[in-house]
Amino acid sequence: MAEVLVVVEAGVKKVTLEMLTIARGLGSVSAVVFGEADSAKLPEYGAEKVYVASGDDIDGYLVAPKAAVLASLVREKQPAAVLLASTQEGKEIAGRLAVKLDNGLLTDAIAVDADGTATQAIFAGSATVTAKVTRGLPIVTIRPNSVTPSSAPASGTVEQLTVAVSDADKLTKVVERVAEKKGSRPELTEASVVVSGGRGVASADNFKLVEELADLLGGAVGASRAAVDSGFYPHQFQVGQTGKTVSPQLYVALGISGAIQHRAGMQTSKTIVAVNKDPEAPIFELADYGVVGDLFKVVPQAADEIRKRK
Amino acid sequence: MNIVVLVKQVPDSGAARALDASDYTVERASANNVINEMDEYAIEEALKIKEEHGGEVTILTMGPASATEAIRKALSMGPDKAVHVQDDALHGSCAVTTSKVLAAALGTLDADLVLCGSESTDGRVQVMPHMLAERLGIAALTGARKLTVDGAQLTAERQTDEGYEVVTAATPAIVSVWDTINEPRYPSFKGIMAAKKKPVQTLALADLGVAAGEVGAAGSTSQVLEFAPRPERTAGQKVTDEGDGGTQLVAYLATEKFV
Q1: Contact A275, B238 (CB under 8 A)
Q2: Nearest CB neighbour to B249, from listed A92, A272, A302
Q3: What is the predicted ipTM?
Q4: A154/chain B closest Cα distance in angstroms
Q5: For the residues of A41-71, what is the DSSP string, one character each?
Q6: What spatial distance separates the first Cα and last Cα of chain A, rounded to whole Å?
């Protein structure tokens, strides 16, 4: 059975386990780990092999070295498919790999069939397509929260890869990595619960209320573009057309009117709950449960109620 | 500094969008086609760099004849000229073949700096800058929320899920930007009038030395098999807070096993 490469480019995350789960349906699973990562979980979810590529050439430059290592591995192993995460960097590596191999690629897949045909959510989740790569092997990026990871223990034999990167792949240096994220909340695109605040939250300080509810529900915090543009919350937490697409089990929209640009980033969520003082807010058109009211009264009461039930 | 800004015309993301039922390409005929919003931030950044360091700003667009509207809109913000790659054979091109054509066009422009939006609102694929960097052998600094130009040295803050990375490279380079990088200017009346007279060079595939069979649907590296609009979500229960809205909300969350 041919190998299927699953690229782990930024640590083992939930989407990594989803990719391993999908990859098992396509062939014998080999994880490709870039940099230092705790790879203990990879065999648990079906990785027969774990290729590791690390060192200064991988960490010190942007994207290109990873694509170079991956391209030589693909040429050597002739895998049945390559899966990457549908994150900025995952897609960027996929793009370079596709050009290097003169090969097609499919992004934002939510499922991949045994023959490599992928189902993709397009136009911000308002439609789905099935598509296939017609030149070369399937290079597919997988959107987080697409499948439920399931374990399937495998041997996970570790093999260190030789990293041979040319100067042409070392044009962009990474000189510093700065973490801005606070606390231990799950990553926005991977979270099972997302609590987002909009213009109605009214200030950066008031986002504490959004964070409090998110923490009580074990969720991530998101923000609408209006809230980000007003400086209430950083852009990396923006949900919608020019931000992140999320697809959690539960999406809670607080003080968000629900403009089409916002809906674009969250309408594939399983359950949607909204609190808004405007009964005509478009968010209620897609909410499974809506509360028309003042979020500054409703949210603290809800928080107290959750604490009581715990 | 010779700056080229990539501009794409896309269907308005604020309205319903669809694929053409005959060939699964983006339906443009019935759509309100606009300049890709993120590209306006790339244009603004280019204009600011020109204002500070001098040089010239060129718009590069690949698209059908109707993309001229997006080009004029872009020029009305202040760039000097535009190049429009237009050829019927391009219809249906995938990202990989599009990068081949854009790389060939960039090859004729001798840019020190190529700027573009981090993603288009239609495809949202985010691969183009790295594909072009790969083809042209130039540096890519992508997902920038801040860009500093010091002679030939570029420094960008690349936004990540965890925070940001400081990345550096020398020109020639391609930089993609997020909408947090600046606030695009509105075209002035003077700008709109001037845009009508600015030179727009049209290039066909033959001008770029790319064969028709390498691009479009014929040269595409992937194929859409089926398209289905997602069923519309329907409104569920809506209650008005009369003092116990928060409690009711949690009661609902409990029935759905979230609490």
Answers
A1: no
A2: A302
A3: 0.94
A4: 30
A5: HHHHTT-SEEEEE-SHHHHSB-SHHHHHHHH
A6: 49
